[in-house]
Amino acid sequence: MTRLSLSDYQKLVGAPGKSKYNNNKPTFYDADKRETLTFDSNKELEYYLLLKGRQKRGEIKDLERQVSFEIQPGFTMPSGEKIRAITYIADFVYLEKNNDPDIALKYTRRIIDVKGSPKTLTEVYKLKKKLLAYKGIYIEEVY
Predict the structure, then answer these.
(1) Does residue 96 form part of some domain?
(2) Are the C-beta atoms of 62 and 56 separated by less than 8 Å?
(3) Are 30 and 49 in contact (CB under 8 A)?
(4) Which residues pair with 36 in a beta bridge?
(5) What is the pLDDT of residues 97-142, one digit of tens each?
(6) Cβ-based burial of 90 (10 A; exposed 0-12, middle 13-18, buried ≥19)
(7) In the chain, which end has fewer C-beta atoms inside a 10 angstrom radius, N or C?
(8) Range of 36's domain?
């Protein structure tokens, strides 16, 4: 077992309380005075409110937050080491109404990831997006 000093650990994973994009201020929203929702950024909260308005108008339905998609299931190596599943968590998933009469489906599933800018697309995120696309699951970024 390797031991790290606190400063070495912080260099590896970042200072405590810091997010990977220095956006260390989560945003809170009290939707109905019964439950406080937490968002990673103001932009994510703003997009949520936009989607809630669209849902109220009947343009979309079945809005969900923080939906997990399994990319690869967990497994056990021959050595007995357990490997965790690889997952992707979407910011929002919903069904959008199709108004095109040539499209047979009434709704299209949309999977949304709210990003600050194209610079925030990490290599891990890009890889997960490709692996999910291979499975027919397509992620859309909103900036």
Answers:
(1) yes
(2) no
(3) no
(4) 30
(5) 998 888 788 899 999 999 999 998 999 999 999 999 999 999 999 9
(6) buried
(7) N
(8) 20-142
Dihedral angle of Cα 92, 95, 96, 102, to the nearest 10 degrees: 140
Whole-number Å distance between alpha carbons of 69 and 14:
26
Place of tokens 């979407």: 90
Q: Is the pLDDT reported for residue 44 higher than 50?
A: yes
13 inside domain: no
> Total domain count for the chain?
1
In a domain, 66, yes or no: yes
Angle at 12 between CA 6 and CA 17, to 5 degrees: 70
Q: In the sheet where 139-142 sits, what is the strand order?
A: 60-72, 86-97, 107-114, 139-142
Beta carbons of 56 and 63 less than 8 angstroms apart:
no
